[in-house]
């Protein structure tokens, strides 16, 4: 999503690094470049104006001008202000000291509220919570069915709201609270109604739900693809209902990113999570500092390591580390690692976490064909167990057989064999060996 903005801001950092001294003239040029980058990314004009003013005041401070590395100091100021725009929060969501904690999800129709309810339930269960899901929409009957199916797919309980019950909404909500407490649920996730636009009827309904349930979190779910419309509706919900946190959906799309940069500033509330796909595990905790670093081309290695740790099997990682140290890494091990990489997401998405400097330069924005992984797996699957353990026995006739079995041309089989041998020979020196070894400690 932030590719265009990131490209523009990285040009600014490159420009500043090339300046031996910071002056009002070159700082003015840098600010002009930043302003244009933000406006083209559809960032709210007032947010851009405030951002520019704060950077200018700090960058032209005498301590910065007199420092040995003024360009680097200004880049740090830009990063810190970017973090400030994106919001700062110690933890994504707050749980009540007295169960059940109640999370109420609000937002316009089509923003992804119902799917996000399921994603949050999955996230909470992974942290030891016992969630109950409920859909409270007085008009859209299909909302019940959609959330019921999501709950069933997660193996989680769903609280049904019949048409007769919904005819008495206040009474239905009080009965819901009573049932959740009596059945021992410590988290109640309430998916509420949405409309195609903000209207008084919707706001009155949500205000009633909030007054009875008294949620610890009122979570605004916004579609990042709608740009400034998401910002306007977020502001309306914040003013009329009172929002505590934000979840931005479809951050894996190709929008310009202005919503994410504007929404915190206009609501004063932090982004807790971002949705990065349709599947129920595609929800990520939002780290403003890491996102700011990624936008400026500094990478986000911490998030990449966390993704690896979530998917990695500890025993497998320890065994893999031993095999790498002994240079016993085989195609069987390679196949397992390909499976884990695919679980982590697309290759281009993973590589976007890398810093755009040093040995990683250019990789963060490289276009990678994820079908290559599928092709690699097909080739490896067409090998016999003996060939996976000892690739040296794969002669010309075996290569032809593997190519036929995998449906790939012989030259791709040859390419994979060559790359595998090169990879195995350099593993002892590789940074990735050190990362793998750390998992086994």
Please explain how this structure is put together:
- The chain has helices at residues 3-17, 24-40, 45-59, 62-65, 70-86, 113-125, 142-154, 163-166, 169-182, 200-213, 228-240, 258-267, 288-295, 301-311, 314-325, 331-344, 347-351, 371-381, 385-389, 396-406, 410-426, 431-439; strands spanning 101-106, 131-136, 158-159, 187-192, 217-223, 245-249, 271-275, 283-285.
- With 441 residues, the chain is of the alpha/beta class.
- Strands 3-2-4-1-5-6-7-8 form an eight-stranded mixed beta sheet, with helices on both faces.
- Strand 5, helix 11 (228-240) and strand 6 form a beta-alpha-beta unit.
- Helix 9 packs parallel to helix 10 (200-213) and helix 20 crosses helix 21 (410-426).
- The two termini are 36 Å apart.
- The relative contact order is 0.10.
Short description:
This protein has 22 helices and 8 strands. Helix 11 (228-240) runs parallel beside helix 12 (258-267). The chain has helices spanning 3-17, 24-40, 45-59, 62-65, 70-86, 113-125, 142-154, 163-166, 169-182, 200-213, 228-240, 258-267, 288-295, 301-311, 314-325, 331-344, 347-351, 371-381, 385-389, 396-406, 410-426, 431-439; strands at residues 101-106, 131-136, 158-159, 187-192, 217-223, 245-249, 271-275, 283-285.
